[in-house]
Amino acid sequence: MTAAPTVRTLSAAEHVEFVRRQSSVSFLQTPAWAQVKPEWRAESIGWERGGEVVGAALVLYRQLPKVRRYLAYLPEGPVIDWSAEDLGEWLAPMAAHLKQQGAFGVRMGPPVVTRRWSAQQVKDGVADESVRRLDDVAPAERSAEGARVVAQLHELGWRPQAVEGGFAAGQPQYNFQVPLEGLDEDAVLQAMNQQWRRNIRKADKAGVEVTTASAGAEDLKAFHDLYVHTAERDHFTPRPLSYFRVMLDALSAEDPERIRLWFAHHEGDLVASTISIRVGTHAWYSYGASSSEKREVQGSNAVQWAMMRDALAAGAEVYDLRGITDTLDPDDPHVGLIRFKAGTGGEAVEYAGEWDLPLNRALYKAFDTYMKRRG
């Protein structure tokens, strides 16, 4: 019988080495991400069995006001064997360790897929008047492992969290991804819808040039200026320039291939700019910006296609366009983003979502009330 793993604090070097041995780990679970979130206390923890680190997590601790107790948050983690028959062997020692560190509760986001829908199903759902959400469409795939994980978490006393609201809304439960494994550029291009292929050709014919940059101060400011312009146009609150400086410096220091800044220019004008991230075989489109001028040259499609080709060349198996809502209502303002992402020919992917384990029920309830009041 295999011994249950034990949990201890890891050094950053141990954590980085573990990440390097994995096929895929969320960038939110790399030790460098702690530097991007300086308002949180951070700790790397590891599961050890027979002297070998067999699991790891980045834990971010948010303090309860006026009390030296914390919510321990593991965004898109931990990185453990989620196929294990007894998840309690992994999660119980983690909870005990975090409680010793002063945690009154734990919040985690298992990187476990529960359902998938094809791009065609998403498109048909938007066109069908009787369909309002992804839940109204039978999925192309239901994950048996995902169902097992959800059932075990319920049995172990973990509580599923709402996708919206609560703790800063957490990480998205629904993402849109393009599978790349075993495909070449032609196959990925052919999977896209006609509009996407036409826009890529249009950008090429118009002379749009896509480049990557060293992310020096001038490059980053050019991205950020366009990003702020996009935020004003699309009515969202932009992150400050300093946030992106820290993110680029921290992730690049951990791995020079981890993060890249992309630019699409047309006749010298910046028409689109993005940030991509890659850990192992998983590549993400993380942030994007586009000009309100020269929309007809399709800079956004051009830069996305360049990032996909780069991911393919690097051996990535997934190109991840990150979060979507679960709405398929054509009158919902979010549906435009889903249409854009579905044009890539990928798939909508539902994860198990975020789960809480109260360790001190009174403090957990007080924190929950505090966060809801903050809105």
From TrEMBL:
It comes from the Bacteria. Gene3D superfamilies: 3.40.630.30. The keyword Hydrolase does not apply. The keyword Protein biosynthesis does not apply. Keywords: Acyltransferase, Cell shape, Cell wall biogenesis/degradation, Peptidoglycan synthesis, Transferase. It holds the Pfam family FemAB. Belongs to the FemABX family. This is Lipid II:glycine glycyltransferase FemX. It comes from Nocardioides aestuarii. The lineage of its organism: Bacteria, Bacillati, Actinomycetota, Actinomycetes, Propionibacteriales.
